[in-house]
Description:
This protein has three domains: 51-173, 3-Layer(aba) Sandwich (Glutaredoxin), CATH 3.40.30; 181-420 and 433-486, Rossmann fold (3-Layer(aba) Sandwich), CATH 3.40.50; 501-539. The chain is 31% helix and 24% strand. It is built from eleven helices and 21 strands. The chain has helices at 2-34, 51-58, 79-96, 111-120, 164-176, 199-205, 239-250, 280-285, 464-476, 482-486, 499-538, and strands spanning 64-70, 100-105, 125-131, 134-140, 142-148, 151-155, 182-187, 210-215, 228-232, 254-258, 262-263, 273-274, 288-297, 300-307, 310-323, 341-345, 348-352, 361-367, 372-375, 398-405, 443-448. It is globular and about 110 Å long. The chain starts with a helix and ends with a helix.
Amino acid sequence: xASLSRKISSSTNLLLFVLIxxxxxxxxxxxAMRHFGRLDLTQNKLYTLSDASINVASSLDDIVKVTCYFxxxxxxxxxxxxxxxxxxLDEYRAYAKGNIxxxxxxPTDDPALAQKLRFMGIPRVQLNIMEKDQASTTNVYMGxxxxxxxxxxxxxxxxxxxxxxxxxxxxxxxxxxxxxKTVGFLTGHEEHTISGDYQTVHKxxxxxxxxxxxxxxxxxxxxNHINVLVVxxxxxxxxxxxxxxxxxxxxxxKVVFLIDIVTIPPEGAVQxxxxxxxxxxxxxxxxxxITKNLVLDRYNILITFQTGYTVLRAPYPFYxxxxxxxxxFDPDNPIVNQFSxxxxxWVSALEPLKESHQDLRFTILAQSSKYSWLQKGRYDLNxxxxxxxxxxxxxxxPLAMLVSGKFKSFFADKExxxxxxxxxxxxxxxxxxxxxxxCEKGNQILVAANARFINDEYVESPGNIEFFLNAVDWFTxxxxxxxxxxxxxxxxxxxxxxxxxxxxxxxxxxxxxxxxLALFGIIRFYIRxxxxxxLETLK
Length: 539
């Protein structure tokens, strides 16, 4: 009887324990459904919605439908991607409080739906499959559509989730916003153009903005619908062009000035020439001096070049690499505070004129490292030259700057420049125009001493295009998308080491492991000897 009683008591305790565990799991699941959360251990929280995305999702006041067109017969290596997409969308749904509807559809066996997707711009893509040592291909759908009322934005092909949050949030903003901002690029003065070497930037901008080229040669003002004006590497502007830009700023218009000071020689030549632009005096009026000196830096990138029949690869100090670890970015400004690095090719130094413009605020967005110096008086770009900086000139130099305040017009004490007219147009009297002499409200401009960093040749460097897009976002929508885009930009730059540090690291690598093994052997020998003495004592 006692044995039976013990068995019953043991079974009861086991059953009670199981019920407690099950109840605990049910409680955890109930709380998880009510309080959404995930643990993200990545440095930049790549798998957690940013504050910007959370704000966008939680502020929706109507239904946004997200339809994912994924085939069921996906290759095994792509199946986890579909689950990751679903997990990210679940976060949006949790924060949207019922205002985001998510649906997964398979168009493979639905000809009508497949035809609809072709019109929408979601293609059927071909993926490789490797099974039983045989290679084959399969055609699948992996696209997403975001719909709100009669508006639709499409993500044609989701190849990974690295940039998916930005694409979804920007698509939601695009279909729910009542207006669309416009970015204008000044043309007519040998600038970089969206139809020329800024095609990558143009493609990126069109996801969020209307983009157009702007020629002011007829003397008209900058149109009111232009929200941001980009002046990218011009040569000589007419006074009337400068007047139009100046008055645009006085009215509160945002301008991004990207100025090149050298004309790069053709391949094979090494001596560059000064690229003259007559914007420098107007920029000094706004508080920024662009010097005629090129910046060189020990933090740079490698280039490949040919000398004779030999192809060499070497560091190139003229390709200045701005590095976060060297305090290269302003830690408080959202345009740059999440960047690891970016590259400026053949960049000059900026100088904030704080003493003569004490009413303006200067924010250095990007600067070279403390190991940088200037090349003065000449533009020798030869990568094989002996780079010998003077010790007194080695210090950080500002490369990109945000200037804020009530700007004074460059034409405040000047006559309005006349419009150049043809003989026929001269007969028509010109309307009197009153110059706005100062910004009524505070305004901002951005000045960078380089315009090449976002052309198609250099824009792929981590941080380059993101810097420009963040600046445009800052001037238009504020911080909505900046945080999402910036945290995708990671570049692990090795710190600059002195010769003593290099020698120390080399010594540790060569002798550290043998020393550790020897130390381990000594400790082990000592422990065994002590153990042997103890055993002999006990005997």
